[in-house]
Amino acid sequence: MIKLGSHVSMAKPDYLVGSVNEALSYNANAMMIYTGAPQNSFRVPVEDLKIEEAIKLWLEKGYSMDDVIIHAPYIINLANTTKPEVFEMGKVVLRNELIRSSAIGAKYIVLHPGSSLKDSLENGIDKVVEGLNDVLKEGFDVIVCLETMAGKGSEIGYRFEHLAEIISRVDYSLGVCFDTCHTWDSGYDLNNFDQVLKEFDEIIGLDKLHVIHINDSKNKIGAKKDRHANIGEGNIGFDILSKVVHHPLLRGKTMILETPYIDGIPPYKAEIERLLNVHI
Ligand code: FE
Ligand code: FE
Ligand code: ZN
Fold first, then answer.
1. If exposure means fewest CB atoms within 10 Å of the residue's CB, which of 5, 94, 128, 246 is most exposed?
2. Using CA atoms, how far apart are residues 3 and 173, in angstroms rounded to an integer?
3. pLDDT of residue 137
4. Which residues have C-beta within 8 Å of that of residue 251, sequence separation ≥ 6?
5. DSSP 47
């Protein structure tokens, strides 16, 4: 079965029940949430999130909690080598998010590896490895999935090799989230998607791939920008994205749209329908 949904909001008063209802309104069988605003670490207590009711509603539809993805807040930067307070705060926030994700019953949390800022990529990677080892030694039943990045600024993770290195040096099991807009912007030619997947498999391993972000891109391949476009409206185009969604090697992996709202309206119901209705 194809697992396809979008990011959905989680806001008062219904919190996770509202998220599930939003996903269901798009006919989605997967969803991704931020457990609070992505830009800050202020969080509503888990007891208030209506978790039990939401899980019941989701499972009643026959959907799986494995397809409820959490995205960690952007403020976490474990690659910051110069400001210990930023690094330490990142670890605290990540730990909190892991606890919250576990309480929600999610299996995967997507994390941006981080930016090395003025320092080298190698030093940044060293710091990410240190940070992840520090946080994960406590033991969590949620798997951190490192996202493939566009390579904007000093972002780590724009080559599969970066993620493979982090995975091999962290003592705990990690996964990966493949973002179509980010890989395109970083220079992977998705016109040859089979080749890109082969490379991913050789360098990281398809068994590590748990989440796929399905986004078109406002920019040309290799632009290192990271601006998402609606499905079929960007430079990747509908045919490639449809091929990704229907790819036999990706069957069963959780796919999430993070495309922009159109005139303030979420486009996900129509985009999901369009992507599912093409059989190739
Ligand atoms: Fe992301
Ligand atoms: Fe993404
Ligand atoms: Zn992005």
1. 246
2. 23
3. 98
4. 1, 2
5. G
